[in-house]
Queue: 4 jobs
Job 1
Amino acid sequence: MSWYSRVTVVLTIGLLGHVTAEELKAPNSASNKWRIWDNEAGSTTAFTDQYVIGNGRIGAMFSGGQKSESININENSFWSGSFIDRVNPDSQPTVQEMQKLVRQGKFTEAEDLGKLGYIGTPMSTRNYDTLGTLGLTQAFPDGNVTDYERWIDVEESVGGTQFSVGGITFQREYLASNPDDIIAINLKASKPGSVDFNIRLDRGAWDVVGLDRHVQYSIASNNDSIVMGGSTADARPIIWAAGARIVASGGEVSTLGDNVLCKGADEATVYFQSWTSYRKKDPKHAVLSDLAAVLKSYSDIRAAHVSDYQAIAGRMSLQFGQSTPEQKALTTPQRMVNIAVDAFDPELAGLYFQLGRYLLISSSRPSSDLALPPNLQGIWNNVADPPWGGKYTININLQMNYWPSLTTGLADLTSPLNNLLKTMGTRGAKVAKEMYGCSGTVTHHNTDLWGDSAPQDNYSPATFWPMGATWMITHVIEHYRFTGDKEFLKDMFPTLKANVEFALEFMTEYKGYMVTNPSVSPENTYIIPNSNGKTASISLGTTIDNQLLWELFGFVPEAQAALGIRDDKFTKRVAQMRAKLPGLRLNQYGGIAEWIHDYEELTPCCSPSQATGTLLIWYQYIRYRTSPRLTKRLLTPLSPVFAIDLMSRQLFPERNGGGPCGWPRAWTIAMSGRMFLPDIAHERLVTQMSECSWNKTMLNQGDVAPFQIDGNFGTPAGIVESFIQSHEYVKTAPPGNANLEAAYTGELDKVTLIRLLPSLPAAWAANGGGSFKGMITRGGFKVDASWDNKGKLKTATIKSQLGNDVYVTIGQTPIGSSRGQSIKVAGQGTGTFVKLKGVKDTKFTVTAA
């Protein structure tokens, strides 16, 4: 059969829904505050110039090119290979010898030994791979391109490109549908019969992935589709396939080689699908079946997609105020440049906030036990070897990815994270036994889709840290505190308990304390005392470990009480070990000491644990054993835990700054809000946007990577801390300020405290006031609030979703004080702190008294 006979003549329009010329109106993105937009096409440079779409599993990046466009495509289970058992066969005796050396202060010797016998064999987990590109080449009449506009709409989760050539207006729309589990690219033109283009799939150029790397077939199918696939180079490979199909209204669709051609159509849609053997036994069959099964019209797919997305995204909104007409008229890149030098742009800040939620909805969707969480780059990647392998880095990054989930109404999106925690629990049990001779489970500072729990890399500041899963387990704790979901807690409790069991057996005695050994303060290095400048990272009993374990051990009785579990022997053992953890102490700079001894940091600032109050500043203040002097200092006026990053910056500004781009800046926004430093919170938000995000896409730059998604996630979570806080607890007591006393992790009789507008920067109110709707607090409360242009509360509504009691206050008043702003709650009373008696679905109205 000759090529020109393999043609589909399209006679119906049922799969598309015809669009007339009059319907192709100007997109007018300047009038839509929820659009990131530009009047210039992007380049092929991923992240800096390309917008991203995703449905939680498959994703794409598009630049809005005119005649040709190379669309990067991804499937989140396409990694570099199958599971590797990497536990070093000599690790257990090595660990025992390292423990001796660390106790003796022989840090260099311990690290040198660990680099041989502790590290994984091989050193690295699998890395996230790129699937390839969908190439689209479109034919146009002669003439210059005019009226160009491209956008991504975070209110609808739809992207677009529109421009005119030779008197004809052309438009493309891009979406990744979760309900239909497919990517769709719709092409229209204002003149009938003007949609001419062809598509092709490939794996990219030599300098990206190596031409046709892992590709074993690339063929046409059914006269309207192409499919490409292959497998990784493993004994047990990941088998993969990707395919695309054109459905057109009018004109002809045909295949030529491994291309699909569309000629003379009025409208056409490209549908893209991909699967791997992680989820499907026969990915190629699954791809072709899914493409052939597309029977709905594009307009119906679009409507279902927008409805599904808005049902999630619309749970919560935030308004910083109104931007000026001059600001609104500018493109997003122009506004991003101006925010650093001009007046605050409140609607641009609101867009940046919602972009973080858009990215989480696009990269983390519950579907099955095989749903995966977003990695260092979410689900988007355009190279075979992305920065840090595009892995799940769990000494800050994956944790921060989910920081906005609970407070901004996205709790159900954490399901993929919990899947990974369970997988790590199973893999980590073998690592705990073989490496440490311990029961329970352990994971170090990185993992992959297989839950690989062995040490990653050969990098002392990160590799020798066995607390990665312990940090991640705090998300289980927080999820229960926000949702009160006992079925969830019951499901996750075995994994939580396994982490406790490992810690109980792993910890050893040191000067009367029980400590982790070996360990590090993640990605930080100190100068060894009296060593002529030698450095090390390895230590024992680091403060981050102590705080993680204090939180984890303290939650055990709370979880047992919630689930009706009685295990007196285990509970007693946990309590005894908790009592032997080292207490907090001040270092030589007046901040919380990061290590058990005073060491001079090699490079002050912004390691994942330099803010050693990090975990607790983010999760919950905890009564921590300290000296009387330190206790007084840390409990007044707020809490027993301050972040060293902020304390040191306040006391020694020359030691710190905003930190590197990405997650460190997001962290300082969060800590500034939590620490009642509104001016710093505002300044850090502005620099995160202007210095640390790409002007054209608003995607966050990593410190050395073109894109690292955690900064986009951490920033909205940090912003919330200035508007509402719920990490503090009050001991159960009758109403009245004189009776109020703070309660902490491990205490069972306590009530959540909600602080309204605790740290609101003046700039976030000055442009007409502001409001938020749908923020969620611990204890299961849904809160709406508004404020005037002076930052004063106008009104707040608190809905009890679980029927719990709660205390409410405005601002920064310490628990037990009566000197703060008085509030009035209809039907409940007036005072600095007012207790609301919980009845499920009851709404309380709060105003300033």
Job 2
Amino acid sequence: MYSNCRSLLVGFGLVFSAAAANAAGLLTPVSASDQLLDLQSHHVRVVINNGFARTEVEQVFSNPNAYELEAIYSAPVPEAGALSELTIWAGERVLQGEVVPKEEADRIYEEEKSQGNEVGKADKNAYQNFEFSVYPVPASGSVRMVYSYYEPLKIDTGVGRYTYPLEEGGTDDEASAFWTLNDVVSVDFSMEVVLKSAYPVAKTRVPGYGGKVEETETGELLYRFESQGAILDEDFVFYYMLEENLPGRLEVLTYRENEDKPGTFMMVMTPGVDLHPLEGGADFVFALDVSGSMQGKLHTLASGVKKAIGQLKPEDRFRVVAFNNTAFDLNRGWVSATEANLRETFARLDQLNSNGGTNVYAGVHLALERLDADRVATLILVTDGVTNQGIVDPKAFYKLMHKQDLRFYGFLLGNSSNWPLMQLMCDASGGSYRAVSNSDDIIGEVMIAKNKIVYESMRHAEISIEGVNTHDVGDFKIGKIHYGDQLVLFGRYEQGGRARVSLKARINGQDEVFSTEIDFPELATAHPELERMWALDQVRKIQVNEMAGFVDAGEAKVAIRDIGVAYQIVTDETSMIALDDAGFARHGVERRNQERVAREVQARQAYPNSSGAQRVDSAQPMYQKRSHSMSGGGGALEPWVLGVVALGGLALLARKKSAGRTAKGVALAGLVALGLATGDRVEADTYYGPRWTDRDAGVARSESSIDQSIAMFWEVSEDEARVEPRRRPAPVVSYVPPPRECHPSGYVSQVIEYDDGRDTHKVDQRRNKGSSRGHFGFNLFNAIPVFDFVWGEGHLDETDSYSGRVRR
């Protein structure tokens, strides 16, 4: 037996999917007896252009019934998406969208619907979803709908990320109980991404999708994927990594229609400063959800926490706080990461039970107790932000976080998550959070999180602009800037001219100033869509300030409504109503959006090669150092960080979803585990291409890069390793791991017995690969057998027997 056949899995990844979530799709009341409307086609076209993206979605709905029906389509809200266009083709009529106050849109829609007229509407339901209503879809007929939105994009540690959200977050149980969702595209699906970058792109990644990326004649990168039908239950995530050693820089995009109107700017700041790893012992507190939704997952959760804190250094201290209706400290205060303290904590973790609601405030409040001002403290919070017990007033959260001096990092899990609350907590503490999709790349998320936690940050950071009168800007008092952060700020300016832009911050106890001079143009007409993104930024600012108690709720509502109507964006207080010309005339709706869309279309046609935000400090560099990247000194990926991110994966599992795609997440978790299991450390400078080999000469040897391996792992998990959900051997209540025999030929055998709380299972596992290429087998948390993977020119034969026989 070869000891290296066993894998040490430090933690699940954030992409460990709790499968078969509610997704984007057509909604039908549960009680309805109609045949479901058919979503025939779904085509997405995205242009990523140096700091922002435009997404256009085109769909065709068909009605198989012998009578008219209303179509209601739901899709998750992109966190910073400004919905700006809606066009519906109903027979020979073309309906176009105009943004009006929400109550007015509701009234017009119902009036037109009651008269049998063609009408459409787009609503935003808080942070959860966009809802599109179309009436009528004719009997045995179809309608076509196109909508589009803009959103700013950040580069984080040299890596850009675009997400097209499809998977629902499972945070609206009432809606799930009322609606039946049809998320199947019956005929054709396509995804197209055009990437315009002012800087060389080293790598691109599209986890879970096929397709390929090609360079066009104009130097852009073009990705395209097509399929005959699809299921809209997984997010599309597009990664692009810039070349290494890029300079710290300042980029600006401006729009000013004429001299009679104020200009709008988007400022993209990528600091180039030396930030060093933290030295000495540090304090880490983990906040764990043990509410009723964790039923059946606590065994795995406890195992993940054990692995995480088991990797801390002896000079580090830790606490584990769990919360449901209330919160409790498993360690009753800070404890050092000694063997005795680890054993005691492990025993207490094993005694946890899942029950009750979710009291996030109680968990955070207890986690922040007993902080030592002389030590660096880090709070890691994993949540979807949905609070249903205890104190739920956002003002209390702001007050709680504002008085603390700590490093705060949050994982906001899934779509439809409460980003306003997480943003408020970050604003109060100077922390940061990462919105994480189930389709995200685990390696990238872990590397980004690790660098922000273990490197020093810029403190008391503040931006100023002198020489040009600016107003209605984002918060220029930044607070903390973490390793790899890129700042995206919006504002307005009265007149063009020369301005000095400065960033002041304290780094390692020393006050530093970084500055440059730039020109704000008198006229700039290439990007009128910039006004919509600025408007949405203002709305988000008002929402967070209202939650914190800085703005009266009534005043905030009026301000958000007025901004939405003036700049034609859908908000919580505005909706988009779609009518023909006669309909708008009947209801006296001013055609503001028609004029705005015409300007945007004209600008795209007049400036087809416009490159978004461009560097403006080349002549007088704002920074003398290069910007941070995945290879810029991240060092080795500490195993404990994988344990921290494991909590994110476990929380995702706790969401109320069925279990259809679990294998995919396990495969990705295994990918991370393999790099550690074989003794090789995953280095930061090999984000997209670390290699590993099995050290034991008696075991089949493999060398394969992560991008190749991920694709193969996904292929295995999607096609070969599917398990009948009703017979999955989980949750495991008790389990005794037997020895696992690996042979140089690649043959693997193992017999296991375990109890899942309902049945006792005896599993006879036999696997055989068909070539001498690479082979990996690993156990989850060094205990629970998961999968064996084989790639190369070969095949995977695997038979498991338990309570019957299942072929994977």
Job 3
Amino acid sequence: MPIHTLGLPCLLIATLLSACSTPSAAEPLALPATFDFTAAELPEQWEVVQPDGTSVAAKDRLLAIQSPADRHAGVRRTLGVDNVTVTARIHDAATVYLAWDDRTFVGTGKISPTPFARFHSIDAAAGRTTDVDHTGCPGYAAHLMRIQLGQDCIRFQYAAGDGPRQWRTLRTIERKAQYAGPPALVVVGKNFGIAQNAATLVPTDSVGRGNRGLLARVEIEATPADALHMNDDERRWLTEPRLDPVAQLLADGQRDPTFEEVARYHPEMKFKREIVGVPGHPLDIGTDWLGRLDASPWEGPVAWFEIGDERAPFADKPESVRRRLLDGYVPIVTLNSQREEVDYEMTVFGWADDFSPTADLYAYVRLTAWAGGETARLPKTIALAGRDHKQVALAPAASPAGAMTLCLRFKHPNPQTAEQISEAEFEAARAQAERAWRDLLAKCASFKLPDGRVDQAYRAWLAYSMLNADRVDGQLRIHDGAGFYDLQFGYSVALHAMALDLYRMPEYVADVLAAQVRLQKPDGHYLQECGLPDHGGFTLSLATHYLVTKDSAWMKAHAEPLKRACEWILARRAEAPAEGMCRGLIKFRPYNDYNDPVFNYQGNIYCCQGLEAAAAALGDVGDADAARRYAAEAVSYRQDILDSMDAATIVRDGVRMIPIEPDTHRLLKLTKYRGGEYYGLVASTLMENEFFAKDDHRADLLIGMLENRGGLAAGVCEFQEGIDHAYACGYLMNRLRAGEIRKTLLGFWSFMAYGMSRDTYSPVEVTLYKSGDNHYTLPHTYSCTQQLRLLRCLLLDEEDGDLVIARGVPSAWLEPSKRIEAMDAPTLFGPVSFRIETKDSRTALIRVDPPTRTPPREIRIHLRHPAGWAIAAAKSSRGPEPAIDGHVLRLAGLAEPVDMTVEFAASN
């Protein structure tokens, strides 16, 4: 065939392949063969498939293939050789295929229907197509994607495009009769076999990354003899039931799952990171998985030690580093490793004068080495190195006891400013940092818990949250990360404010909200990165701050921003459809990962609940007219949302489903009508603020999708073959309120085991929990927020005018000699204190100091005995005895502190 110059218009083959006919006469392919697509000319015997609306052209020394989702474009050549391994080096969203005919083919590559690319594999034969989206990956990076044909199997594999080829198998399928004989074609491109009227087509993401694929090279070789047959592990994977061992814990009787049980099935995360420093400072000091210091996990380390003449690092592998925070929660991190039988310990913290976010931030580091007292084995030279590869030589010295200690500090993030300091200077600064952090965290640590892990973890989440926040131009900005996600995501900020209001931080939250009010537009609209949930969350968080604190002066000062936010909602509702399935719904950008306007229930639910809360708050401070108006609008809005869900409900595969986007079904299509991925993440958020009544069938449909159609993994939200645990908070709180406490605890322990580092409680956005790989997005503020909200819900909750205590605490926390305590914990009724202390297996002592600002109708105390024993008797120090309802004590009209003695008895 002729050679095509790709800088010129390319050969148009057809809109779609009608058959895999031979492109042109060709000599039999000699193996191995390599085809280079980085030149301006197409390799010999390759043809271009380029229907209208697509392009295939040379660009930047790559072959660029541009195509929308409803048509196929790419390049192809005859193959006619069996048992081959075909590898394509690609960037962005492209796939390599082997085709027997236009309806019988296999392929693997990368796709990007959202801004996040992921690996992909497909097999089609006998009229059936299996289309699998695998784990996420950096789309822009080069990857080697390969199909390996064996005699009885077909493997879909990938490796990084650069460096040693370490192949990972995405999946293996049996090579059935339909795939017999040599494939007719090898194809590289997009959307092979697509039909323009495919019901599941979705637009690629609104920034267009999913439309493009880039090809550099294709390699074809004979499959090695040892790979021609399926191995035992692959056959087991194909034939054995794929049960989730973590979820299976719920099938083991009625006992509560434990952290140890949940954590034993999969490894802990590999790529850990903590941050230390000063709350609100724009800079933070990260300690990464190898003990290096960074300012951003995405940009790599800024400083690290080079030890000895070999210039050895502190650690070579993530698993060789042990780590801990001071007392488990104070952000002073200590790392331990061992090299050549020498034990190393590194302690890192940050300090600025007066603990000020506007002063220079200094990183303090102490490195010690110990070789059992044998000083001859200690390193003679140590240097601090940085990105520019300039070393700062240090002078290690051994003590008479045989330990080497070296202390330094530098102005972060510049290691060239490093200066060696004495251990006394280091200790003096460390003591200041410790005291400042302890004093700060004591103000918001409203619970004392018998589980040391959880008691430390929630304090660490508070510390990480305050470190991720940055004070800029005097304004406190809540960022979702330090060195990553350095943005204010309005929806996340709103949730964070509402969470910290429940942890004795009203002044801090007022500061946060003041910064957000400044970002409100004159027409009342508030938008920060996400979309409609930003505005609804902003409205809800302003009103909720008042409803928790009952600070009338603050509310009156912020009534106008709140009312402007409500008026914006009313104005957008007035523009909404007046009838039909989307009646009354606001069409707007749904979230930051998709920028096109759509009807989406999440943002509309937040706006509705914002109106409801605003009506309550404004009515409470005397603005009766606004309160009546917003309350009436909220009633209508709520009904419109519920009616829309009913009208939009579809049936597929015999299952009733509510599309999150009622008119497009985009999220359902993205998940191939399963309950995971973005569908599951958003479905869970619909339940995080109690929008649905307890017995609402719509919530049941959402829960059914999560629980029965792949929406959960290890008890939390599945995402790209991993978990995005924080998004499960709404689902888990819903299950708790429905009395399915074991499901909630399973998810909570999965948070602890797989959503964060198990030793320093640093949470991440996404974990590939089966392998321990994780995204470099930690510590993550949104995760901290949802973890704090879920923990508070386990301990304390408001429900239908009642105050609920200890409903979700693990039953193990009521074992003999354990104590659960809350101190002035904020609630919608005012601060409450309580103590639950078990003397032995039969007796518990309880004290409640009830809220008095707005007394709850009833206080319910849940006492789930570890052995399942019932409450036999309860004696009160004052007033009437509490009513006993199974494992629940009910106290109506309690206005003064009360002490109770509770007796348990074994159930018959």
Job 4
Amino acid sequence: MSFDFLGEDVKEVVRERGFEVATEPQEKAIPKVVSGDNLLLISPTGSGKTEAIALPVLSRLEGGEGIQALYITPLRALNRDIVGRLEWWGEKLGIDVEVRHGDTTSYRRRQQALDPPDLLVTTPETLQAILPGSRMRENLGNVNHVIVDEIHDLADSKRGIQLALALERLEEAAGGFQRLGLSATVGNPRDIMNLLVGVDRDCSLVLVEGGEPSDFLIESPTYQDRAREVRRKTMLSSEMSSHLVRINELIDNHVSTLIFVNTRQMAETLSSRMNLLDREVGVHHGSLSKDRRVEVENKFKEGELDALICTSSMELGIDVGHVDLVIQYNSPRQVFRLLQRVGRSGHSIEKDSKGVVISGDPDDIAESGVIVRDAIEGEMENIVPRENCYDVLANQLCGLTLETDDLTIDKALEVFSRAYPYRDLTHEDVVDVLGLLEQGRVISRDEDRIVRRGSTWKYYYSNLSMIPDEKTYEVRDIASSRPLGKLDESFVASFAKPGEVFITQGKMWRILNMEDDVIKVEEINDPQGTVPSWVGEEIPVPFNVAQSVGRIRRKLIDGDVDFNHYLIGGEAGEKLMEVVSRQTEAGYPVPTDNKVVVELGKQEAIINICGGHRVNKTLGQALTSLLASRLGSSVGLDVDPYRIKLKLPKKRSSVVKEVFPVNPDHLKPILSMSLKNTSQFKWELMKVAKKFGVVRKDADYTNYDTEKLMDIYSDTPLYREAMKEILNHKLDIEKTRELLCQFGEEVDVRWCQGFSPIGSLGLESGVDIISPEETSESIIRTIEERIENDRVLLFCINCEDWKSKKKVRHVRDDPVCPICNSKFIAALKPWEEEKIKKYRKEVEDRDVENLVKSANIVLSHGRDGVIALAGRGVGPTAASRILRDLPEGDDLYRKIYEEERKYARTHMFWD
């Protein structure tokens, strides 16, 4: 047995821990680690893989000075779990285990420098932070083992290749050391091995099968009687109400349920609505404060929550105790993510992984079926590490300069080209990057020597993190001053202002004021709250998955789909058959893996193509460029994995026939020319510029002259890096070109007038969260009660001396100024006093104009005018629409509700 390879003291503690039989990963990995091999262990969640690597490393620690082993994890949250587990072993074995990350106190840092632990648990960024320090670098000189946990999570981001360079810098300090990686199942393990060990180093691979869903079903519940009550209470659409009913049933039938969603926005939506149904659920995502995340993790672990709704923040091995069911809400988009998520159920290699996917529209159902089937058959996506990223190289060159007194360009090239992602790095590459750093006065050069400056330290430590910078605002509960989480700048800019209501932690909060980077809020009860939308959350659907969805459609035409093969339940299968039947009955061809259907409206065109996100984005970008040049006007673009949606000026959709299909040979030149004019490229250019230090980290994209930035750096590594990131990782030119080459031969193109049932699914993209159609009496009562209890600011336009804040319910039917008896009274929101100041100063602008319009409305309609103006997002123009030809009864509040819904849908697009 593999435990026999461990030292006697470790074997004794293994027995004390109750490990009687080694798991398969332990049986295969322990002998190789003990023998000193570099090793990548790929194994399912809950298979004992941490101990498979950690135990032989603990067995091999020889004592002595300095840090002997590093355990690197991608998340600080994982550090908490790992330290707890390793400390137990360390205490039994007399091995000092400590953690070091951004939250470590200055006192603990000093203690670690003076008396280093035997094993240090840390993150990639913290390793790079401590490498240049003379005392800690000396301590790291004794490192013999480096374990990188969850390496797959780092592999496809710039954090991964940054760590690869950092390990080469560590090798300069410590000499050779054993490299050990832990990974979930991926489609291309060799690439992950190369990232771990670099060039010309041997590495063993231990691959343990398992983790595929063994008890699984895809469901798409239909609207039934029980959903009506849920819809009334939550104001959700009929579809989402049906989903919520089924989710509640599943929770009731299990002890501990994790509910995975694809976005933070959906996590907040589900949790808020479930709380309205008196469910004890928690929510867990990256924008919540650390204390809040730890709190819900512990509550779930202790059984205080019925369920925990989470995003990818819970995919990795954070310990939340036993989970007996995983619900995936909507398609997981990728096989890899499904395995990670469902693997949390059972969380043991001996126990079955049990899960349910709750799917919505037919695309989502088919996509979920493909992903579940691929997971069962072991068909995984590849995780492709980035290569030769110049912004990462710039930062790491500065780090190496801080650590090396006499650094030459050739030495830097020698060190960094040992990292596999930089194996093709050239002398010219290094010189070009150094030129930019020298231009920014970050470093100096003395012929072939690289010389640090005083500013080198500041630049290096300011740009250690390769996680994209976006300004965030802290949200605080005004009652307790407790931090609730953070909101992204994009959400704040488009939505947040005093009086607005949004949802976080599953509760409703009203914004009271915004000062600097802090938003103060109060908790309220309002089911209409807006859910924050976070940028960059969309999980892309791969090309192969989208093509398989097309194959399912093709089989549906022929009537030979075995839904059991895809684990698609009865109602879900019926929805798939229904949409294909409606398509054919309406006389439209069905878009499949080998058939593209182009549908033309008056000003819109929908290209139904099963290409996945990146291929469809690539083709869509090329098409909009060609169309814009022909029409002399911009063309709107939206894509999903199965459609490219084009919005054209005037009634010119027929022009699409002139440019589609795109010539495969013209694809890359078109994109290279057109991408530089897109907001996507300008955003990427700003991100890279910040990493190079040529733009301040707090610079605002919306106010920055990106055109000038492009002109200055057009022929530099900065520009090339931004363009490379878009072309290689946001788009997929090669796969798109390959697909275009099949047009006319293996792929048929059909043209139609009007939009088909399948094409129209794209026009209805996104989940309709708020119930549309009819507005129930209970909702009207809720709106009325809220408005009656809201405060309004009344101001006399005539004398300018009287103003009063009061609840709407206390406003008389015919408001009159108590000072001058004028009825010319403006009704404002309580936070709009600035408008009164402007009016008194006789400022001429839109605020003053609206204030006067408000007074005219109150003069004409009395208290009804005040009520209308108290609606959320309702100004004088909307209030006039509400009050025009107003019938009797509840119609005032009904029309206010309609205007509020319109505002919620569209206000982010207003000037």
